[in-house]
Amino acid sequence: MPIPRYKAPSRTAYDIVIVGGAVIGSSTAYWLSQALGSGASILVVERDSSYEFSSTALSTSAIRQQYSNPINVKISQFGIEVIRGFQERMAPFYKDEPAPDLGFKEHGYLYCCSPDGVKAARERVDLQRSFGAHTVFLEPGPLKDRFPWLNVEDLGGGSWGAREEGWFDSVGLMNGFRRAARASGVEYIDNAVTGLDIADGRVISVRLATGQTVACGTLVNAAGPRAQQVAAMAGLSIPVAPYKRYSFVFASANPIPGRMPNVIDLSGTFVRPEGELFLTGNTPQGDGPAGYDDFEMHHEEFDDYIWPALWHRIPSFDALKVQTSWTGHYEYNMLDHNGIVGFHPQVTNFMFANGFSGHGLQQSPAVGRAVSELIVHGAFQTLDLSPFCYERIDRNEPFLEEAVI
User: Fold this and answer.
1) Closest C-alpha to 103, from 87, 90, 92
2) According to the model, what pLDDT value does residue 3 have?
């Protein structure tokens, strides 16, 4: 890990302190700054402003509407709206240069479905379409016609989102939110939160690695895979931990003709095109919590598990060569794989924005807006994210999502 070069804050008190400045923290800072203007002081504390090890920078940067819960479908639909209009939205904050184009590749997702899973897959497609998604279910014959390079012999079909799904520039999204927030008066510092002071059921101050203590009106936990570390500083606990995900970029001796979507195999392995190359990953063997600083690569995951799955599903992937690879962390919610969004009922100014389990990037526009609404208005104003409340964690009542990768 890099040696930190921390910076002290410019004030001794802030209305809002956000712990974590990657895409969730910066989206929250952006929406707050637009809602409050100069009427509030906002501090974002980011422990590594290079973002080298952030989940945002190491993400595979995709967005889909193929979920089993209506709220997740709606969250992604707003995310698509923001991604498509991001350049225009950010233009006021890029006076001397073009605002970022997120390079949205609208290739869609293709979820392979087992024969036993057809009924549930069709029900999910019907749900998604009822909210305006463009998902369709293709039986094996039409699926093979549409994607002739796909092995459909063991499939019951596949759900395909032909529009408003794909992948985009994750760092561009984060940097846009961050730049807009800073231009609107939000202060960012390179520093680390080392402790929280609690009195009368509230966070009253935040202690920093550089020795300062700053008073705090509202504390937002946007610390990604380190969310439980921050919660513990307030005497709280959430079932969120870093889970390692390995990404591999490979070349194939045989190209895939046509417009290839992001293919999700029955094995959980995914693959999509990246120019003339391909990006792939899976749920690793022995999946479980990792160390916060553990980014060690396991190259055998590709040879032993990913490549056999790819070759089975796409037979032309018989001659592959890995070009590059990296390890990232999911901020994994071990209860139900969905985010935790909202205030704690006892520590009443402690806001959670955690546990998105690989969906944080695509959900960041809606989550940042929702957190802002709770802080500014005391209630959700647009999308109702109350199913993501902390209370379900305390009650051990999962809010289940079937379509988890």
Assistant:
1) 87
2) 45
Domain 105-166+241-330, CATH homologous superfamily name and number: D-Amino Acid Oxidase, subunit A, domain 2 (3.30.9.10)
3-state secondary structure of 101: coil
Domains 13-59+171-239+335-395 and 105-166+241-330 share a fold: no
What Rg, from alpha-carbon coordinates, does the chain have?
Answer: 21
∠ CA 195-11-192 to the nearest 5 degrees?
Answer: 30
The tokens for 332 are 């994994």
CATH code assigned to 13-59+171-239+335-395: 3.50.50.60
Specify whether the CB–CB gap between 279 and 249 falls below 8 A: yes
| CB count in 10 Å sphere of residue 272 | 22
Spatial contact of 238 and 393, defined as CB atoms under 8 Å apart: yes
Q: What pLDDT score was predicted for residue 405? A: 65
Percent of the chain whose pLDDT exceeds 90: 95
Q: Domain locations in the chain?
A: 13-59+171-239+335-395, 105-166+241-330
Q: Is the C-alpha dihedral spanning 222, 225, 228, 233 positive or negative?
A: negative
Segment 102-121 shows an average pLDDT of: 97
Distance of alpha carbon 120 from alpha carbon 123, whole angstroms: 5
Residue pair 135/126 in contact (Cβ under 8 Å)? The answer is no
**Per-residue pLDDT at 135:** 97
The DSSP secondary-structure symbol of 115 reads G
- What is the C-alpha to C-alpha distance for residues 347 and 19, in angstroms, rounded to an integer? 16
Residue 400: pLDDT over 90: no
CB-count burial class (<10 Å; 0-12, 13-18, 19+) for 139: middle
Per-residue model confidence as pLDDT tens digits over 25-46: 999 999 999 999 988 999 999 9
* C-beta neighbour count of 258 within 10 angstroms: 10
The span from the CA of 214 to the CA of 231, in Å, is 18
Identify the CA nearest to 150 among candidates 256, 236, 232, 69: 256
- Contact (CB, 8 A) for 203 and 216: yes
- Partnered with residue 242 across adjacent β-strands are 331
Tell me the whole-structure pTM to 2 decimals.
Answer: 0.96
**Can you tell me the distance from the alpha carbon of 206 to that of 193, in angstroms, rounded to the nearest whole number?**
7
Buried b (16+ CB within 10 A) or exposed e, 332-364: bbebbbbbbbbbbeebebbbbbbbbbbbbbbbb
